[in-house]
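Quick one:
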Amino acid sequence: MNDLTMRFLFFISLFLTTNSFAQKLSKADKSIVANLKTSISYLADDKLEGRRAGTPGEKLAITYITSQFQQAGLSPKGAEGFQQSFEINDGKEIGASAIFSVNGQELKKGSEFFPLAFSPNSGSIEAVVSLSLSESGQPWFKDLGDVLMNNKDNPHFDINSEIQSIIKNAATKGAKALIFYNSSNLADNVKFDPRDKMETAAIPVFYLMSTAREKYLKDLSADYDITLKSDLAEKKRTASNVIGYIDNGAASTIVFGAHFDHLGYGEDGNSMLRNGSKEIHNGADDNASGTAALMELAKLMKKSKSKQNNYLFIAFSGEELGLFGSKYFVEHPTINLTNVNYMINMDMVGRLNDSTKTVTIGGYGTSPAWNNILSGIKKLPFTVRYDSSGTGPSDHTSFYRKDIPVLFFFTGLHTDYHKPGDDADKINYNGELQIIKYITAVVDNSKSLGKLAFTKTREQQTGTAARFSVSMGIMPDYTFSGSGVRVDGVTDGRAAQKAGLKTGDVVVQLGEHKINSMETYMQGLSKFKKGDSTTVKVKRGAEELTFDIVF
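Output:
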């Protein structure tokens, strides 16, 4: 489940108290439990290295899920057999042609120098320069040592803001390029950040490591023959959804979904570990549990005599990065989305608590039909807590955005969420079995109703760790790799909609606060309180527009 929004998840709850199913498991039930154990144990094994999207571990998971779909008798419904591949922008990387040479000696990329991530790509710059002089039309050197020493006791000092200020000043005064170094013994925390979304600088900008400066540029008064070239490339990885289909020749299709990717070693910064260690995050509950349930439902639906709907089963990748896989699917569907009846999403369904026995079902408000369908299921082995919202921290949100009714099944957070301790031995397999049986009952209760009507619902506030008391009422597009925050949806009656923002707009400034990423967007929001008014600047296609907004 996606960490960006999970921190703000809340529920408006309605409790349904029920009796319990018979506890004795049938032979068929025991078979499902055994299958769940086999699938979750495999998907959450260390050899898959946490199933990070676009990795060899993900490919092993894809092979396993594909084989299970084939065994279930599903037909391939991806773009390439069972698979639907898509690219994930992984930020930037230093290009092969980046150069920094001193007197003919070429420095090593990454370990001795690097262009900053917001540096523009440049042709080769050749010059004879001194570290001690700054002349118009020449590359400049800038020592950060004095700045760091002067601010070593200032808790509010931000080296990145200081660097941005120095760059602008140097460009205004005619610097052809800028080379930072640090002559002090203080750490400067200047790193190559592949996910940096700062505006591209006006001039090429490089950082020279202290060891390289001392080795190649020791004499501050000497002239040096240098050659520079900034080269940054987009870094991408390829992930894949796995899609199988049961064609009953029906007019409508029910979509079952679960994401199968997880965090790997936490490389994307979404681990809840705060000690900096790199450990495998196996994600047994999140979301090998939902994936295993998806595969068992595929087997059950294939055997079902109910033919009123076709059934599409999608194992999504890229959910942990911001619903990449489900968003890609709804933008590049392999079936006609107008024929989709509804979508059922399973994310973290493996930790049904034996004491509280509570399952949360989100999306209750996305169709008026859900009330009768769900209340008609009697003698449950758990308590149901309903959440009306069609949006949330998982893949059903992408379908809700296409005006499709959704249900979202979730057994709750736990102390192993997004940590290495989310392992297969902690799964409540009998509890997951009961959720699978409940979902089959939902399908059975809906089979005579035709295509369900869709209704819009309230939307959950989403965000990062920044504290804020207001929201604009937009759904950010987490797959957007450019500078700013692209609007994926606008909530009716909220500040953004009243101001005039539209889906597709890219928010680049909020009041005086520049917006280049989700983090800076949330930091900007944190400066306002309810009732405040300001302006919001957006890019709409080639236009840049400014709107007045009241929170």
